[in-house]
Design brief:
Length: 710
């Protein structure tokens, strides 16, 4: 159901409001009210979540580049949830990890719909103004971006739309609330054009292939209702698309290149399973063409781009028409695999996974729960991230040299994908009270390092003794398409060249029983259902092959014991009302326990106490002290303590920091004594028994052997 209001005059600018019902809530879009100098802008509201989404392009193309300069931003503002930013300056800082990941999800379906030869800078900006927890701002940004771009004058072959799907108790939810999104069994985002799916991103608790396909196409159907509204918006307020400077290699140049380097010779240059050999062959081809075109400055200016296009056409023709891959593999064949664990000494867990010329080393570190990552976002609470997966991609992994400037958006995205892949199989905090950090170091890269990271991480976790529930593997499937929907070839385990020159990178991770994560990127205007289903089937078969024929031969189950270098952790539960007794005034009691034992103690609001140390004896002593502090003394209990105070009427015995009891002088010895000091000295360690309450209601203790013997 869709409808819109009439024209409203605002500073002589036509303003329109569009509305539709989307998953039981109203979606409202205002055009022409704000940000009128942007090429396209919408103020979009879903529930009470409100964003300003804009699309802006530069007037002229950027010179000296051979790519489309697109930038996508997702700006989280703390005023949107009525909060101050943290830190000294009280101002939002660099983009959060969530902002980066959201921008990437928006970028992936939008980028293929712009002209491939468009060189004007384009920025798609999403400003979060208010957040309603029942309507996720990330989803609203995705829809708003597509709308702002579609109604702008920027060349764009849309529209497209995006929908999110969750799952609670087996039921699919369209555009779930933040709570259902976080706690459900599925977190799926699907982008579609009119006819095809153009992007998939998912995290799942082992959904079957068929369940995932059903969820994808339920989202695809919802996307068509949004596209219908966008079509109406374009018809009513859309601008005519502007012309731009087209970039194309002269056809005559290609013909002359083919005379110098024949198509057969180009096939021989790119046909190699060694990346370095192939790159050396292309370098020689380029030098040969440069010599031949020495007197043609116009050709030399675009020679690198022309050679790239020549390679691309050659590789695509080899695959699509001849079913030949550059490294000679069959279409469904995985590159040579190898795996090993424990290759690095002293770390808590390590593993290396190699697939062809892609090689990842993963290192796992275990720590007390106090080391969890605190994540503050646009929601009501600060959340703790117990499992952290990080991915690094140094320049040497591809034979290049450049300074390291920290992780970029690609590194953050790859780390998040591998993290999503393993989350469903991690043990609960109750079963394994550790914070876990897994770091994937890329030693060598030639395609799909994120999937190699998933495999290496799984093995590293098992080597570290993390009791994961099942083994997880990942693989990528590629695609080369022809002129029509039925003319295509799918490629299992794509290498870099097939990724660069192909049309799709469809990554799927999972156990033997189901899918745990998906990330699909394409360079064309969408996939048919047949291709999606076949790609999911291919990746299912491939990940089973990897687990059975490689990973399980290196390590087939989690180790029963942790590394001797990992901290030992014991978790006990206390009455939450006794937390103050353990902590003490200004932390005095807990700090004394830490000083005495050398153990580290963490307590959460539920009363879960985690005690960690390298030495088991230190843990045992700290646990004993905590248990004594929180116990309620009962008649007949035997305790050992230290004499900390002597009075005329008796002695005070400390059983644990802040936990004392008094032994009356009449119960210190079997015989009558005149002075406490005749038997006890400060610092003595003594055994006592609880005698119950005295006449004044206080707990009474005894050192008499007759009482101790009872």
């Amino acid at each position: 159901m869709m409808f819109y209001s009439g024209f409203v005059s605002v500073e002589k600018v036509c303003m329109k409001t569009f509305r539709m019902e989307l998953a039981g809530r109203e979606l409202q879009i205002e055009v022409g009210k704000v940000a009128k100098q942007a090429n396209g802008a919408v103020m979009i509201r879903y529930g009470e979540t409100t964003l300003l989404c804009t699309a802006t392009a530069s007037e002229k193309p950027r010179e000296g580049i051979d790519f489309f300069p697109l930038s996508v931003e997702f700006e989280e503002k703390y005023y949107s949830v009525g909060k101050f930013p943290g830190g000294f300056n009280k101002r939002e800082g660099k983009a959060s990890e969530n902002s980066v990941l959201t921008a990437r999800v928006i970028d992936r379906p939008m980028r293929p719909l712009f002209p491939k030869d468009y060189r004007n800078d384009v920025t798609l900006n999403n400003l979060v103004l208010s957040v309603d927890p029942s309507c996720r701002p990330e989803l609203v940004a995705m829809i708003g971006t597509a709308m702002a771009t579609a109604i702008s004058d920027i060349p764009f072959d849309g529209p497209c739309a995006m929908t999110q799907v969750g799952m609670i108790n087996g039921d699919l939810l369209i555009n779930p609330s933040q709570s259902d999104w976080d706690n459900g069994d599925l977190r799926l985002t699907v982008a579609s054009t009119r006819d095809k799916v153009i992007m998939i991103e998912a995290g799942a608790n082992e959904l079957s292939d068929q369940e995932m396909i059903e969820a994808i196409y339920k989202a695809h159907d919802v996307n068509q209702t949004i596209i219908a509204l966008i079509d109406q918006m374009v018809a009513e307020v859309g601008k005519a698309k502007h012309d731009y400077e087209h970039v194309a290699i002269d056809r005559q140049m290609f013909e002359e290149m083919k005379k110098i380097v024949t198509p057969k010779q180009m096939e021989e240059a790119v046909f190699s399973d060694e990346k370095q050999v192939r790159e050396e062959n292309i370098r020689r081809v380029t030098e040969r063409l440069a010599e031949a075109f020495a007197d043609r400055e116009d050709y030399l200016a675009v020679l690198d781009s022309a050679v790239y296009q020549y390679q691309k056409k050659t590789v695509r023709k080899m695959i699509l028409k001849d079913h030949r891959r550059p490294d000679g593999r069959a279409l469904d064949q995985i590159r040579p695999l190898s795996a090993e664990v424990d290759l690095i000494p002293r770390v808590h867990g390590s593993a290396m996974f190699t697939r062809g010329q892609t090689q990842i080393c993963n290192i796992v570190t275990l720590a007390p729960l106090s080391e969890v990552q605190r994540v503050e976002g646009l929601d009501a609470n600060v959340t703790n991230k117990r499992y952290i997966h990080q991915y690094n991609f140094p320049s040497y992994s591809v034979g290049e040299t450049k300074p390291s400037r920290g992780p970029g958006r690609r590194e953050i995205g790859h780390g998040a994908l591998a993290e999503r892949a393993l989350l469903p199989v991690l043990p609960t905090v109750e079963d394994f009270p550790y914070a876990i950090r897994a770091v994937s170091e890329t030693f060598e890269s030639n395609g799909s390092t994120s999937m190699a990271s998933t495999c290496a991480s799984c093995m590293s976790l098992m080597a570290a003794g993390v009791p994961i529930k099942k083994m997880v593997a990942g693989i990528s499937c590629g695609l080369v398409t022809g002129e029509d929907d039925d003319d295509y070839v799918l490629l299992t385990d794509i290498q870099g060249l097939e990724d660069f020159f192909g049309d799709m990178d469809f990554k799927v991770t999972g156990t033997k029983d189901g899918i745990t994560a998906i990330q699909m990127d394409i360079k064309i205007h969408g996939l048919t259902r047949t291709i999606v289903e076949e790609a999911i089937r291919r990746t299912h078969e491939a990940r089973l092959f990897i687990m059975d024929n490689c990973m399980s031969k290196a390590i087939d189950r989690p180790r029963a014991e942790l590394s001797k270098y990992a901290p030992k952790i014991v978790q006990i539960q206390i009455d939450p009302s006794k937390i103050g007794d353990v902590v003490g005034q200004r932390g005095k009691t807990i700090n004394e326990i830490i000083d005495r034992t050398g153990a580290k103690i963490d307590i959460d609001e539920s009363g879960a106490v985690s005690v960690s140390a390298m030495d088991q004896a230190a843990i045992d002593e700290a646990v004993r002290l905590v248990e004594i502090i929180t116990m309620d003394f009962e008649k007949g209990q035997h305790l050992t303590g230290k004499v900390v105070s002597i009075k005329e009427f008796g002695a005070f015995i400390e059983f644990a920091p802040g936990k004392e009891g008094m032994v009356h002088i009449s119960r210190i010895a079997n015989q009558r004594i005149d002075r406490v000091e005749d038997v006890l000295t400060l610092g003595d360690i003594v055994e006592v028994v609880c005698m119950g309450k005295d006449k004044m209601g206080r707990m009474s203790f005894s050192m008499k052997s007759s009482d101790l013997a009872q």
